[in-house]
Amino acid sequence: MEKQTYTQAKKELEGIVNAIESGDLDVDALTDKVKRASELITFCKEKLTKTDSELQKILEDIS
What we know:
By secondary structure, this protein is mostly helical. It is 84% helix and 0% strand. The protein contains 2 helices and no strands.
């Protein structure tokens, strides 16, 4: 998932949520999709945290 962008991860996560909400997944696929969603959520949280830290540092440097 290193090369995946936040936008790509968010879009994939939205697709998984839509599939789950629509009930289009069988039980086997549901398990896989929930695992993938968990990975995507972790990736997005890490990306947001890193971006926030970088922005805070930049703002501190220009103050």
